[in-house]
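INFO worker-7 received task bundle
INFO bundle size: 2
INFO processing item 0
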Amino acid sequence: MSRYEQIKDELRRAPRTWLITGVAGFIGSNLLQELLDLGQTVVGLDNFSSGYRRNLQEVLRDSRAPRRSFRLIEGDICDAVVCREAAQGADYVLHQAAIGSVPRSVLDPAAANHVNVSGTINVLVATRDCGASRMVFASSSAVFGDCNLMPLAEETIGKPLSPYAVTKYADEKYAEIFSRTYRMETVGLRYFNVFGPRQDPLGSYAAVIPQWIHSMLKGDTCQIHGDGETTRDFVGIADVVQANILAATGELNPEGHRIFNVGAGRRTSLNELHDLLSDALVKLRPSYLQNAPLHDEPREGDIKHSQANISRIVRELGYLPASDLAQGLEATMQWYLKRLNPVEALAKTA
């Protein structure tokens, strides 16, 4: 039995109370689904600036958990009073709320800093003051910057390439200081390129996988920034959920602070990704006619290559990511085909 299966059994036997910030977002709503399925009590905090009520509605509709197991607080992490209210009685805090876009941070660095840094400090203070056992927070592979020592290990970073990267690195340092100064436990998870159900395919800052699925379903041509040989470590949402729960419940070093990469440990080029998505759609919809992608200029602030060294999280927490990217992409494509066809119709209900 894997370490994660053991933890899930323990949580079923002894339920806890969890706070999820950004609960209506892509990652937050998937965390909510898993925790409710495990019989946990969850408080969710969201201001719906990027999350969707439909995500919460879908989770609650499909969950067997009593409605009283989930309480939503509509509010902003930039409001310290709201953060304190949300953290009351929580055993664990999973902090996902953020402005999570490199291009958006380039356009508005002040907003990214206000939400990602000041908001995170508010959540840290609330976690400390309300006595939660541990705060797990979303960091990013963006903190590695221009480091080209692949695969990327937690202890080696380069120069940051965007305001977003700076905010996430600042979050890590603040968490480290809080652990040292206030004797509280914090874990930062450096997410690589996460994909899966409920990831928003619309908007200027949509991630590449849902954006391309959207284009393919419409019969449009996908756009690749650069020559397509840019590589990323694409990790399924189920693995990110696993990492959060393991990070919240696992043993830490004596300092009470740890940073872990959360990826699949492999590199996939954008050209390869396009082929895998096209193949998945052809398999699910044989009438689909594949279009060659359109290449344009590289995007400002993007790194060229990315791959996670996941040996630390595997060794210390027992993390076991899914091994087959093609299967994960096919399952994701199937979800969009069932629920987001056409995508625009669903967007109107947000």
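INFO item 0 finished
INFO processing item 1
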Amino acid sequence: MEPLALKDIHLPEVIGWWPPAPGWWLLPIILVLVILAARALYKRLTRKTAIGGARRLLADIRRQQNDRLRTLTDLSALLRRTAISTSAARSEVASLRGQAWLDYLDRSLPDQPFGQGIGRCLADAHYRPTVADDIDLEALFALCERWLKQREKKS
């Protein structure tokens, strides 16, 4: 019998790294979506926490209104801290003063109660030695609550 002419064992070709499998295409897309969702959730939670804390502080200020000037100063500081905490452009909000600050507060509300209404006293109350007697603090507290509710709706 004659020996068969056999060929040596063939090894398969080396598998290349390109193009990647479909799972590797999906991985970066899913990763980006997870990062964006986590960022949005973090912003939403911090915004809600800031507004919830502001509501509690507003209730504390309302209970402790002994001095009218101190009450106005505390309300002004509370609104500013809340605006800075919940705004995307923190540095822009922090630098606002006077009418620009009131205009920023009015952006959330349709009737401009800060620039042309009872909220006007918050622009410079903390710089005055005394407070005018005609300022209705209950209306001002209601306005601050309304502003906080409007900020909460935006989130």
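INFO item 1 finished
INFO post-check item 1: The chain has a mean pLDDT of 90.
INFO post-check item 1: The helical segments are 22-63, 68-86, 90-94, 98-106, 137-154.
INFO worker-7 idle
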